[in-house]
Amino acid sequence: MTALVPTPERLELREAVRKSLQRHPGPRGFLAEQPSGKWFDASLLEDLNRQLGLAELLVPIGCGGAGGQLADAAIVFEELGAALAPVPLFATVALATSALVASGGEAAATLLGRIARGEATVALADARCGLPDDHRFVAVPRAGGGWLVSGRSGVVIEGAGADVLLVTAETGDGVTLFAVEADASGVQRRPLRTLDLTRGIAEVVLDGARAEQTGASGGGRAAADLAWDVGSVLLAAEQVGGAQRVLDTAVEYAKQRVQFDQKIGSFQQISSKLVDLLLDVEMARSALATAVDAADEHWEDRGEDTRLALLREASLAKALCSDSYMHVADEGLHVVGGIGFTWEHDAHLYFRRAKSTQQLLGSPDSHRERLAKAAGL
Amino acid sequence: MSVSPATTAPSLDEFKAEAAAFLDRVAEPRTEAASSAGERQLSLFRGSTVADADAARAWQRTVFDAGFGWIDGPVEEGGRGLPSRYVGAYLQVERRYSTPQKSALGVSLGMVAPTLVQFGTAEAKGRWAEALYRGDAIGCQLFSEPGAGSDLAAVATKAVRDSDGWVVDGQKVWTSGAHYSDVGLLLARTSTGPRHRNLTAFLVDMHAPGVEVRPLRQMTGGADFNEVFLDGVRIPDSHRLGEVDEGWGVAMATLMYERSAIGGGVGGGSGLFRMDTLAQWLREIGRSEDPLVRQAYARVHTGVSAAKTMRARAEAGVKAGRPPGPEMSLSKLALVANLAALADLVSDALGPRLVADTGAAETFGWTEYVLGTPGMRLGGGTDEVQRNIIAKRVLGLPVK
C-alpha cells in the first residue's frame, strides 16, 4: 500500500501547494454571496497551474500531461480543502480528466491536451451529481457531422466558468459522453446560489448545442461512473484536509482561550471532544488512504477486479469522510464558541463546505448502501 | 528441555518449513468448516476454566519443546534466540492449523512474561521465565484494587520489608485467570513517598500461604475474573521486579504490552468482524434486505476497515523510522466504537430474537456479545482515561 505513509516527494508537493496557497488571499475575497459566477481566484488558479502544473497532474504523459498518480492528486486536494482554496480544479482534475481518460479516443486525448496546457477548464454534467429528475440530455446527429445536444442539468459543479462542458446524453446507442464548448450557441448557464460559498455550482441548459463525441457510443455511463468514483476519493481528500484544519484550529484555540480562570483545553468536556475529533480525522485519513490505493491500482491496470475494489473503497471513504468532516466542522465550531457563529470567523465556511460535500456525489447513506451491495449483502 | 539452542539461525523459509513439519505432526490443517459461522465465538469475555488452562498448558509445552514457544527469547534463559520477525513467521504458519485455544495463557505470555524478562533478577528469571514460556507456570496480573481503578497509583496493598524479603497485605480485583495461575505480577505500596515513587513490583507465588482467590461474577453472568486477597504473604527480595519504589515504571511497561494486545487482537482475532461471515449470517436469518440493517452493516464495515488501515499506517510509520504515535490508544477507541456499531447491527438484525430465546440458531447467543461490550470500554484503561492520555500527549492540551 502506497498511500499509507506519504513519500518524501509527496511531502514536498504538499509543501509547495501550501506555499502557493499562502501567497494568495484565501477565500474571503471571493465568497459567492451573489450568484455571479465570479467565485474563484483567477490569479491563484494560474499560479497553481503554471508553477505546480496541477491541471496536468492526472493527464497521461501521452496526452501531454504529468501522468501523476491519484496519491499525488489526493495530497493536492487535501491542501486545497484545508485552505478552502477558491479555484475550479475539482471539476477539471478530479471529474473531467477521469471521465476523459476512461473514455479514450482521439477527441478525448485532444481535450486532455488542452487541460494539460491550462487552455481549458472542463466541468462534467451528469445525472449522478443531482437528483435523477434533475438531469436529462439527448443527442442527435448533426447534418454535416458532429452532434446536437439538448436538455438540462440542475447541478453542475464548477460549471459556470468552465470553458468546456462534458455531458452524458442519450443517443440511439445508449448514454454517450459529449464535449460542448461553453461559448457555442445554444448553451445557457445560470450560476446558482450555493450553500458552500467557496465553490460554484451552475444549472446548464443546452438547446441544440453543437457537441463532439468524446468516447465510444454507449460508453458514457461507464466513463462518468469512473469519474464519480475517482471524484468521490478526491472529494474525500478535500474533506480530510478540511477536517484536519478545523481540528488544528480548535486545538490551538483550546490552548489559548481562558474562561473560569483556566485554559478551556484543561476541561475534560473540551479535551475529550477534541480527542473524538482526532479519532474522526485519523479514521477518515485511513479510509482515504485505502481508497487512494484502490484508485491508483485501477488507474494502472483498468481491470474489472480493481474497478470493483475502487467502487467499494470509494464509497466507504466518501461515506466515512463525509460524516467525519461534518462532525468535526460542527463540534470544532462549538469549541470555538460564540465567535465561531459569526460571519467573520471561518468556522462557517468549513461547516458549509462539510455539509455541501457530504451531499454532493452521493449522500453517506447512499454510499453505505452501495458498499453493502459491493460487499455481497 | 529437549531442543538445543540453534547455533546458526535458519532462514525464514527454513524456519517456516520446520514449523510446518512440526505442526503437520501434532495438529490438523484448518478447514473451512472448522472456521465457519457455526463455531463463532460470540462472547467478548470467555474466561478460561481450569480444564481450558490445562489444555493450553499441554499445547504450549508441545510447542515449546519443539522450539517454537519462546522464539525471540535469549538462549541463556531458555529462548530460541531468533529475531522477533520469526515469531510472526511462526504465527503465520500456525494459523493454517487447527490448534487448541490458548486464551488462558494470554495475560501470562502477553504481559507477565515480557515484564519479567525486562525487569526480573537473574534468580527470578531462572525460576519463572522458561516455566512461563513452557506453560509449566501461568502468570496473572495483580494491579487493580477496589480503591485503585483508573487511578492505579492509588494502590493500597502494602509490602513491608521483613529480614530477607517482604510481607504483603491487601486486596486485588478484576484478576483474569487467578484461579489457575501459579504466579502473580503484583504492584504494592512500599513507602510513604510521593505519588508514582512509592510503589514496587513483585512476582508473588499464587500458591503461597495467605493468597486467597475468589471468583467475581460479571454482568454477562459468567465469572471470568477474580478477587485476590493477600494476607501476610511472603515474597523473597529476589522476586522483586525493578528497584524499590520504582514499580510505577514497571506497571507502565506492562500496560503498554496490554494495550497493544487489546488494540490488536480482540475482535479481529475472534473473527467477529469478518464482514463476509456477517453478511452470510444476515442472509441466513432473513434480514439482509432491510435497508436499516444494510446501513448498520455498512457502518460496521466502514469502521472496521478504517481501523485496520489506521493500524497499518501506524506500523508503516514506525517502519519508516517515525516514533510510535498515538495509534495504540486511538486504536482502542476505534475498537470500542466498532464493537458498539456491531452491537447496533446485531440488535437491528435480531430485534425480539435478541430479547427472548426462541431456540433459533445464531440468534439469542448474541446476548453474550451485547452484554460484554461495556466491559471492553473498561478493560485495559477506560475510554475516559485513554482520552485524557491522548489529549495530553498527542494534542498537547493542558489536561490536569
From TrEMBL, chain A:
TM region positions: none
Domain of life assignment: Bacteria
Domain Acyl-CoA dehydrogenase/oxidase N-terminal, residue spans: 7-119
Keywords for the protein's UniProt record, in alphabetical order: FAD, Flavoprotein, Oxidoreductase
Name of the protein in question: Acyl-CoA dehydrogenase family protein
Organism, as annotated: Arthrobacter hankyongi
SUPFAM superfamilies, per the entry: Acyl-CoA dehydrogenase C-terminal domain-like, Acyl-CoA dehydrogenase NM domain-like
Family according to the record: Belongs to the acyl-CoA dehydrogenase family.
InterPro entries referenced in this protein's UniProt entry, alphabetically: Acyl-CoA_Oxase/DH_mid-dom_sf (IPR046373), AcylCo_DH-like_C (IPR036250), AcylCo_DH/oxidase_C (IPR009075), AcylCoA_DH/ox_N (IPR013786), AcylCoA_DH/ox_N_sf (IPR037069), AcylCoA_DH/oxidase_NM_dom_sf (IPR009100)
Keyword Phosphoprotein: no
Domain Acyl-CoA dehydrogenase/oxidase C-terminal: 220-375
Cofactors: FAD
UniProtKB/TrEMBL annotation, chain B:
Superkingdom, taxonomy of origin: Bacteria
Domain Acyl-CoA oxidase/dehydrogenase middle: 140-232
UniProt keyword terms in alphabetical order: FAD, Flavoprotein, Oxidoreductase
InterPro entries: Acyl-CoA_Oxase/DH_mid-dom, Acyl-CoA_Oxase/DH_mid-dom_sf, AcylCo_DH-like_C, AcylCo_DH/oxidase_C, AcylCoA_DH/ox_N, AcylCoA_DH/ox_N_sf, AcylCoA_DH/oxidase_NM_dom_sf, Mycobact_Acyl-CoA_DH
Cofactor (UniProt): FAD
Claim: Acyltransferase is one of the keywords in the record: no
Gene3D superfamilies documented for this protein: Acyl-CoA dehydrogenase/oxidase, N-terminal domain (1.10.540.10), Butyryl-CoA Dehydrogenase, subunit A, domain 2 (2.40.110.10), Butyryl-CoA Dehydrogenase, subunit A, domain 3 (1.20.140.10)
Keyword Oxidoreductase in annotation: yes
Domain Acyl-CoA dehydrogenase/oxidase C-terminal: 245-395
Domain (Acyl-CoA dehydrogenase/oxidase N-terminal) ranges: 56-136
Sequence similarity: Belongs to the acyl-CoA dehydrogenase family.
PANTHER family for this protein: ACYL-COA DEHYDROGENASE (PTHR43292), ACYL-COA DEHYDROGENASE FADE34 (PTHR43292:SF4)
UniProt protein name: Acyl-CoA dehydrogenase family protein
Species in which this protein is naturally found: Arthrobacter hankyongi
